[in-house]
Amino acid sequence: MIAIDLEDVHKIYKTPAGEVHALKGVTLKIPKSTITAFMGPSGSGKTTLLNIISSLDRPTRGRAIVLGRDVATLGERELERFRLLNIGYLFQSYNLVPYLTAQQNVELPMLAAGVPRDLAKIKARLLLKLVGLEDSLHKYPVQLSGGMQQRAALARALANSPELLILDEPTSNIDLENASAILSLILALNKVWGTTVVMATHDPDVAAIADKVYTVRGGLVIDGEMPRREIKLDIERAKEIYEKIKAIDSTWREQ
């Protein structure tokens, strides 16, 4: 099964200085339940590619099929709903709402999706426990370290149990210990939950957890391979939390 199918995708931005050709005919397929990494220097087109894959942006030319939907055929409201229910995005700058607590930040996408408030609270606490922030539920972003904000943002990205998780430089602003925790969690999500993960990174150690690694340079995607990195996972803990989250998802979707 294919999660992402890009065919001759171009992305051109118009600027006062002229046109910028950010993507130049990208064609690739990403299977479901895999981890894919894109590596390349700043300005190579990695973030533009993530924005196309996550349907935050549309191709100027070419076709992007995301989770079986041609994003070019969706209206803005339909596209927003599609992203909300199916795609989680961990931004490089976290993008946490500063006046909301960690728990409220995680609840926010669920409330937007129509999850009852009481169930959203329970699920937010489970997700924050999953990322190791069960003792920081009521702290505001300014009270959290960079690594803690990264984990809170990851919990928020998982709020609606997305089929596709997009990560933009997931370890760029955090220390080695927190980076290892994030990578372990990403692997557990993929292994236990079957989440399709697509990420951009500068770090070969991060890319090494992927099933497939591509190099992005000058708006072009170059095929490549890299051995998978072995990381010890707490699979049983992830499974236990996942079962509780599945039960919550089943409850509100049946209402």
From TrEMBL:
SMART domains: AAA. It holds the Pfam family ABC_tran. One of its GO terms (cellular component) is plasma membrane. Residues 4-243 form the ABC transporter domain. CDD domains: ABC_MJ0796_LolCDE_FtsE. Keywords: ATP-binding, Nucleotide-binding, Transport. This is ABC-type antimicrobial peptide transport system, ATP-binding protein. It comes from Thermoproteus tenax (strain ATCC 35583 / DSM 2078 / JCM 9277 / NBRC 100435 / Kra 1).
